[in-house]
Write a structure and sequence with these properties.
The protein has 271 residues and is mostly helical. It has three domains: 60 residues; 139 residues, Serine Threonine Protein Phosphatase 5, Tetratricopeptide repeat (Alpha Horseshoe); 69 residues. The chain is 72% helix and 7% strand. The chain is built from twelve helices and four strands, in the order H-H-H-E-E-H-H-H-H-H-E-E-H-H-H-H. The strands form two sheets. A two-stranded antiparallel ribbon has the order 1-2. Helix 9 runs antiparallel to helix 10. The protein is globular, with a radius of gyration of 29 Å.
C-alpha cells in the first residue's frame, strides 16, 4: 500500500512540476528519481506531494477560468468577475432604455477594462444587445441563438435566454415584424417559435421552460385557437401533474374544449 501511495505522490509532483513551468524540469526529475525512491526519503516526498496538491487546489479555487479572444483559457479572480458582472448589468440598463450609443460605449469599455474575461461569446452577446437596443429583434435573436449554440456553457447564456423571452413576449403581445423590407405582419408565429425553442433548450420542467410554454398556450387561447391551446395545455399537464401549474393546465384544457361543446349543432338537411 505504501508503495502505491508513494508512486502516486511521485506522479503528482511530476505533473505539478510540468504544469507549473518552474525550474524543476523532467530531466532533473529523472536524475533524482533514484534518490527519491530510497526509503529514508519516501516520507518526506509524500509530505511534499500533499503540500503540492493543496497548493494546486488553492490556485484553482482562487478564481474561475474563461475562454479569451485568443482561444486560450485565462484565470479570473472572483473579485474581478463580480465587478465585471456589475458593469454588464449597468450596460444592460442602457440597452433596456434604448440608449444605443451609450450602451455601445459601455460595452467597449468593458472589453478594455476586463480583457481577461471578455471573449468570443461576449462579442456575440454585445452584437445581439445592440440589435436589441435598436429594436431589430430578428437580428438580435439570430445572434443570441448563435451564442447559445456555439457557447452552451457561456456565462451570458441566461442573459441571452432572458432577452429571447422578452422578444417572444413582445411578439405574442402583437408587435409586428417586417417581411421583405416593407410588409409588416404581427409576429405571433415568430413569438411562438422563439418560446418553443426556449422550452426545448431549458426543458419544460424548469421555471423558464414552463413560463414559455404557458405563454404559448395563453396566446393561442386569446386568439381563439382552441385546438392549439388545448394541445399545449395538455402537453404542460403531462409534465406538471401537480401544483398550481398542473391545476391551470387542466383548467386550460377544459376551457378550450368548452367552445366546441357550447357551439350550436350543425344540421344537414338531406333532400
Amino acid at each position: 500500500m505504501c508503495d502505491y501511495i508513494f508512486k502516486y505522490a511521485f506522479a503528482m509532483v511530476t505533473v505539478m512540476s510540468i504544469m507549473s513551468g518552474g525550474s524543476c524540469r523532467i530531466k532533473k526529475i529523472k536524475k533524482l528519481k533514484w534518490i527519491l525512491f530510497m526509503p529514508e526519503y519516501r516520507m518526506r516526498f509524500v509530505i511534499l506531494a500533499i503540500a503540492a496538491g493543496l497548493t494546486a487546489l488553492s490556485m484553482v479555487s482562487a478564481g474561475t477560468w474563461r475562454l479569451g479572444s485568443d482561444g486560450d483559457f485565462k484565470a479570473v479572480s472572483a473579485d474581478g468577475e463580480d465587478k465585471f458582472l456589475v458593469a454588464v448589468a449597468e450596460a444592460k440598463k442602457l440597452v433596456n432604455t434604448g440608449q444605443t450609443k451609450a450602451a455601445r460605449k459601455a460595452y467597449d469599455a468593458l472589453k478594455n477594462d476586463f480583457p481577461e474575461i471578455t471573449g468570443p461569446d461576449f462579442d456575440l452577446f454585445i452584437k445581439a444587445e445592440i440589435y436589441y437596443c435598436e429594436v431589430k429583434f430578428t437580428r438580435a435573436v439570430r445572434n443570441y441563438e448563435k451564442l447559445l449554440n456555439e457557447f452552451p456553457k457561456s456565462g451570458f447564456r441566461e442573459a441571452a435566454l432572458d432577452r429571447e423571452f422578452a422578444v417572444a413576449t413582445a411578439y405574442l403581445a402583437g408587435k409586428k415584424k417586417t417581411l421583405l423590407g416593407f410588409i409588416k405582419i404581427k409576429g405571433y408565429a415568430e413569438g411562438i417559435s422563439i418560446m418553443e425553442k426556449i422550452t426545448d433548450r431549458v426543458g419544460i420542467d424548469t421555471q423558464m421552460g414552463i413560463k414559455a410554454s404557458v405563454a404559448v398556450a395563453e396566446n393561442y387561447e386569446q386568439r381563439k385557437k382552441f385546438n392549439e391551446a388545448y394541445l399545449k395545455w395538455w402537453e404542460i399537464s403531462l409534465e406538471w401533474e401537480m401544483g398550481p401549474v398542473g391545476r391551470d393546465a387542466l383548467l386550460g384544457m377544459a376551457r378550450n374544449k368548452q367552445p366546441e361543446i357550447d357551439s350550436p349543432p350543425i344540421f344537414i338537411m338531406i333532400w
